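The records we work with from here on pair a chain with its fold. These numbers are not coordinates but entries in a learned vocabulary of local backbone shapes. To see the layout at work, look at the sequence and tokens printed below.

. . .
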Amino acid sequence: MLDPRSLRSGDSGPETGPAPAPVSETIVAISTPPGRGGIGVVRLSGPRALAIASALFRPGRKDPGGGRIAFGRFVDRGGETIDHGYLAAFRPPRSFTGEETAELWAHGSPAALRLLVEAAVALGARPATPGEFTLRAFLNGRIDVTQAEAIRDLIEARTAFQAKVAHDQVLGRVSSAVNHLKDRLAEIVARFEAAIEFSEEGEAGRFLPEGGLLRDVGELRRGIEDLAGTCERGRRVRDGVSVAIVGSPNAGKSSLFNRLLEEDRAIVTAIAGTTRDVLEETLDLRGIPVALRDTAGLHEPRDEAEAEAVRRARGALATAGVLLLVLDGSRPLRDDERALLDGLDPARAVVVINKADLSSGLGLDEALRLKRRHAALEVSAKTGAGIEALRRRLEEAAGSGAAATREETFITNVRHKDLLLKAAGALRRAGDGAVRGVPDEYLIPDYREALDRLGEITGEVGIDGIYERIFRNFCIGK
């Protein structure tokens, strides 16, 4: 049997943070996604992780011994072989969790992985709860809360840009920005407190510049508000945008849906009313994940099925972040289309005149009016004419142009925005009080509140119900 004491720690990061907090339980879970695959990973973490993993492992004959990764057989408590694979060991504090950690790299058979978990539980491990490995990494000082949240975002990323942004945050990009603000505020608080402490000795001037710190406080507050203001762009990166394709029956909505996706996802026929349900696919627009929805034509329904289809289409229209209104350029506008145009919100609507490959039935004056008033684009879902211009317009409407840059630090989490605004609000109260002549000692609680709110973003200040608020939405095994 492989001696767990001979396994060297793996390189999973620099030795930073405090020593691991004492934990009495060893946890275990499958860390790879559900389903079959070439490789499956069972992870253990806790004081008996290596002992339990070693009890389930028989090294191969060619194993040189002494390494942190060894090849051999995985067995159950009775010694029966479950699978072949690798045992990887990570010593604290360099492991992800900051605890003794072992990973069993087997084939991606759900049945084999379940047997390994059951065998580990039989030897004293406890099944991990969702996010418990990451929670232990936080509690042991390996990561802060913003990094933990970014790990979840990285796992759930649907576009390459989402993954890159989340990875930057895992490395501490948001933490660094918040800590910079917090350090500036801590220095201001220290100066105020020192000035108050030595005021009777006439040395307050040593700590406060001429004119006081009101200007510094104002600049810091604006910096906090600026960071909070990046959340709308960041939210679009993290959560994406929904785009509903709406319009009358047979305007070419499904054809446009397929053209934008570059695949035949929706059924297209010459018969009006083919689409009965809302179809949804993800479209990557310069890093912004767009939930593109094809809806039924808006018209007066003739039966119960059509009524339900129209109801769902109107629901998509009401909830979408962006509306893509498709008009049939081969015929005159209908009254209900004019009414729909009149009620559009220009900030979240893109209007296209489809079927540019056919003779125009709109009339020159109508087409010009649509272009002037609604910046309508002429496209052909059939030939692809105008589609690239439409993509650029959708990118602008979805906010990709504003958000798709890694060079700028922006927040993607509403929790961070809320705490930043609370910190800025506390500084605003302190600044207003200083202008009114309120003594500094009565303003210190506001400054300290702002400091606490910034600390709460990274988890430096205690967060009530941290597991319920942050880690419960993680997958099991992470």
Summary: The chain has 17 helices and 13 strands. Residues 49 and 101 are 6 Å apart (CA to CA). Residues 173-197 form the longest helix (25 residues). Confidence is low (pLDDT under 50) at residues 1-22, 267-274.
